[in-house]
Amino acid sequence: MAGLLLLPPLLLLPPLLLLLRTLHIWPRLRWLAADLAFAVRVLRCNRALRARALAAAAADPRGPEGGCSLAWRLAQLARQRPAHVFLIHGARRFSYAEAERQSNRAARAFLRARGWDAGPGGGGEERAGAAAPLTPGATVALLLPACPEFLWLWFGLAKAGLRAAFVPAALRRGPLLHCLRSCGARALVLAPELLESLEPDLPALRAMGLHLWAAGPETRLAGISDVLAEASAEADEPVPGYLSAPQSVMDTCLYIFTSGTTGLPKAARISHLKILQCQGFYQLCGAHQEDVIYLALPLYHMSGSLLGIVGCLGIGATVVLKSKFSAGQFWDDCQQHGVTVVQYIGELCRYLVNQPPSQAERGHKVRLVVGSGLRPDTWERFVRRFGPLQVLETYGLTEGNVATFNYTGQPGAVGRASWLYKHVFPFSLIRYDVTTGEPVRDTQGHCVATSTGEPGLLVAPVSQQSPFLGYAGGPELDRGKLLKDVFRPGDVFFNTGDLLVCDDQGFLRFHDRTGDTFRWKGENVATTEVAEALESLDFVQEVNVYGVTVPGHEGRAGMAALVLRPPHSLDLEQLYSHVSENLPPYAWPRFLRLQESLATTETFKQQKVRMTKEGFNPSALSDPLYVLDRAGGAYLPLTPARYSALLAGDLRI
């Protein structure tokens, strides 16, 4: 009888589910469940991080666990999981206990340079006498590739109460000197393999009064000592925690330079609070301590150092560190080391889907890929070819105070704008005028929130929990990053400089950088929209879209640099037909530039500013160029004659 009584409700279940789907309620319930699950994960993560902060504050200041959160966490892992592998680099493996010992040696070497003498019992005191090259809190710049030694020196500097500055490895001459001056560096650690290319800069570096070290013995230059040799001669006992304990969690403990795509790099101040928060990154992504994380990103970038390394320390997992990304070696590495989590940025996933099929890509253990900058077309190709796996796209800035997580796995989205998420990580989208480069304000002088589906500037309130520390080098560098009186008199918001869209289902999608979006024919052109349309062509492998100034025309005309997919050739007729069917007329690229490979930064960001400056003059560029002939309805080779006709106003684009 009981079974018969249950039968009618069971029969009603399928039509009920169908009704929920028809009314679009079922997806909303599913997303609400995902919002709640992520909120619970955030609460658990915050509880764990708060417990670590309290434990570090309560620890004996003369013991190793009385220091900053980074030193405290490493010491804790060395005690709790001493034999667990922390780092794999090539054929070398290091346990958490070995990482602790290596960083202790580095800390003692830096402390000697600080004039601090560790004595035989592991205590210490400041030495009197000759001036030491470093003082407490001084900044030491690291110009090194991604390698274990980078980590030992970074951790050692933190334990010694010194600030590290991560200098991009490609910088030379003026930009390098600018970075070192802006962060107030007192010493510089160089990779031996970079000394030859840096030799012209050495006189200027010495003139700045920098103490110079090399991270290895392969140097014969006077005045440059081997910091690794000095560290190896030191004891590996912990140093007292009080040396690194901050006065406030808002104190600067590290400098990471912005990419410099729109000018000289700026030294973003990284606080102890941010280091602690980044320990929760992989926990929020759903990773755990038995995961093996693949990291092939530069350590001078936030994604590599704070999210990759500090995030790994947060869960006590293993990281496979690569000095350089290799698409051809990637799946072999994953098979060899049992990789379960991969961190990406920019175009890494695109490089992988453009590789020919290999046996190693089958039967892998990768279950989660985490990162930012994955375009929708690559997302679908990646999952279809290498799945089943979860893609977790995130959004954040080195100096920013807001982050988003696409924990639902919705393709193309960077996160959610649910009331629950915004309660935990508050942010807003406000209207932005591309022409003036300023937010739109109402008659009362306040900013205006965007409507559903409308691109808006992402801003986040500055508070004690989500501060903005700015940049080293002067308050004028912060100008433009802070907006005041946004919604109420006196409020302050961080300006991300990015345009996002919130759709009718509450998903956030990246739209464009404010500096990349341009106006043409009175309309706003989003470079991402044009790039996605072009990338759907089977003969196009990579695209970089940007705006160029054309004499006699207002605004900027769209230009697309293309890399063809082997073995295809450029089909101009199909390309014109495709853009005319998939883009509004004002968004059609007016110029095409065919390249062997796209110019990118070392963190795989496209070089739009440089490409814009290079323009479209066929006499100045060796790449094949094409121009849109509106009258003829076709793309034509941009010859010097057509270039002259364009400048004279005889060629209509």
TrEMBL record:
Q: Which reaction does it catalyse?
A: a very long-chain fatty acid + ATP + CoA = a very long-chain fatty acyl-CoA + AMP + diphosphate; tetracosanoate + ATP + CoA = tetracosanoyl-CoA + AMP + diphosphate
Q: Which residues form the AMP-dependent synthetase/ligase domain?
A: 134-416
Give the AMP-binding enzyme C-terminal domain ranges. Answer: 529-605
Looking at the record's lineage, which domain of life comes first?
Eukaryota
InterPro entries named in the record: AMP-bd_C, AMP-bd_C_sf, AMP-binding_CS, AMP-dep_synth/lig_dom, ANL_N_sf
PROSITE patterns membership: AMP_BINDING (PS00455)
The EC number(s) given in the record are 6.2.1.3
| Keyword tags | Fatty acid metabolism, Ligase, Lipid metabolism, Lipid transport, Transport
Q: Which Pfam families match?
A: AMP-binding, AMP-binding_C
Family recorded in the similarity comment: Belongs to the ATP-dependent AMP-binding enzyme family.
Name listed for the protein in its UniProt record: long-chain-fatty-acid--CoA ligase
